[in-house]
Amino acid sequence: MDDEIWKVFSSETMEMADSLEESILRYEKDGETAALKQAYHQTHSIKGSLGIIEFNTLENMVHRCEDLFQSCMEKAFTRKKLFVRVVLEMVDLVRQVIHRESEAVLDRKTIAAFNELLANDFYSSEGDPLNNTSVQQDTVNEKKTLRVESAKLDELLNLTGELLTAGDSFKELSEELRDNRLSSRTSILLGLIDQLSNRTLEMRMIPLAPVMKRFKRTVRDLAEETGKQIRLELEGEQTEVDKTIAERISDPLTHLLRNCVDHGIASPGEREKAGKNPEGVIRLGARQENDAIFISISDDGNGIDYDRIRAKASNNPEWQHINNPEELAALIFEPGFSTAGEVSTLSGRGMGMSAVRDAVQSLRGSLAIESEPGRGTSFSMRFPLSLALVEGLLIQMEDNYYIIPSEDVIECIDIHPDSIDQSLDITSMEWNGSVLPLINLKRIMRMEGVSGNIVVVRNQNSSCGVVCDKVVSILQTVVKPLHPLLKREAWMQGSSVLGSGEPVLIINISGLINQFRD
Q1: HEC-encoded secondary structure of 294-319
Q2: Residue 141 CA: distances (Å) to CA of 36, 137, 144, 281
Q3: Please, are residues 306 and 373 in contact by the beta-carbon 8 Å criterion?
């Protein structure tokens, strides 16, 4: 099969499967006739695509499901959940076949199980058939789009980064020569490069809607598995994020949702005893503020049981001294820490939340948690608007350069080198009436000499200072991947090249604070 044909087919079919899942879940929740009809059309479209690619076995299974749709529109039926289950099973089979690029997953056992589901009686002898059984395809006005491989966008961005670097070198040259004509031409060139950079970054931004809507199915299945009544509410689905965040945020969100279902939302009976609605609510929201993206998950459940965490922490010498609610809540992100009584399919091994923190930090993000006993828990993640481009403060230590992202910077302070103990990796100073921890990267990297500048940075509710020799300038540059040997360092998030050709490392402030706090 031609690679280009397969790429188009697989992409479009997976999108149709996602849309079908969303429609049938909306029908299950609200009983909308329009949603049912939309699901029917989407099933028909999937069947047509499978026929073109000659996945005949799966096409036949989808065709039988399409017949069930048509039949349900002509007769009254009461076993709606069973009907929805059949459609969702069909969607899962489509995804598995596309993922495997083969119908090999459709063995005899799988086909027999699907046929057994279809053999059920979905109908009742009473009731009226659905209104307007003649299904008409709605006319939809869509914007013209062109599918482009993400690798080509990455290549375009890399070339844009090279232009940014070249533009900086021209700027340095024009300043050195003090030639007005050269400076004028350079300004025009830099303006065009800036426009190209912004447009390229915009092409990498995609809405979170497909990722967020997918979790309706996740929460539905978890609620059925646990016997709980849970409703997922979505906010800000059209918020656009860097494509890398959209691609890699699914696993962390899944872990957090599972945590809300398992630890947050109680059973209907327990909620009623507490004076709450039997149906719990989980809210998944996204929003943009200035140059940052915030993604949050909250529930109206039991909140964090600080006493239970404190009891668990007392068994570990490293955590015995912790008593502050904020620090106790942060323990749930430690590897191996779990308050679950037993290991289940949802939780209990103590690794899920640790993986969430690591995944968020790998995306240059930070994670905060707030909880009120009896009222619920909220997780908030903060990400930069773009992972491909960073605007930051260029600092220098001897002949080495580093970039601290601007969104993390609070202020810069000039100090007398003798005012702090520079023989230590970690020290502190007084700042705005409180103690400010200081991280001396120069000392940690075994460089000689003392420094006279501090960059105060933030990470959610924490602040610290980074000791450096010199604050050089503010610059914007494209982020390049780290060498594999450097990826193990949590405080490094990428690299770049200055206009002078000097290499520069980009500091992950969240990883820096957590690494040296540990």
Answers
A1: EEEEEECCCCCCHHHHHHHHCCCCCC
A2: 21, 13, 9, 34
A3: yes
Among 243, 250, 244, smallest CA distance to 212 is for 250
More confident residue, 334 or 67: 67
The tokens of 377 are what? 């828990």
The structure's pTM equals: 0.73
Is it the case that residue 140 has pLDDT exceeding 50? no
Coil/strand/helix, residue 4: helix
For residue 367, give the H/E element and its range: strand 366-372
Torsion, Cα of 383, 388, 391, 393 (10° steps): 90
Q: Which tokens go with 397?
A: 């230590």
Cα 97 to Cα 99: distance, rounded to the nearest angstrom: 5
State how far the Cα of 65 lies from the Cα of 12, in Å rounded to an integer: 20
Q: What is the pLDDT of residues 462-497, one digit of tens each?
A: 788 999 999 998 888 888 877 777 766 777 888 888
Q: What pLDDT score was predicted for residue 432?
A: 85
Question: Residues in the chain, how many?
Answer: 518
Q: Which residue type occupies 247?
A: E
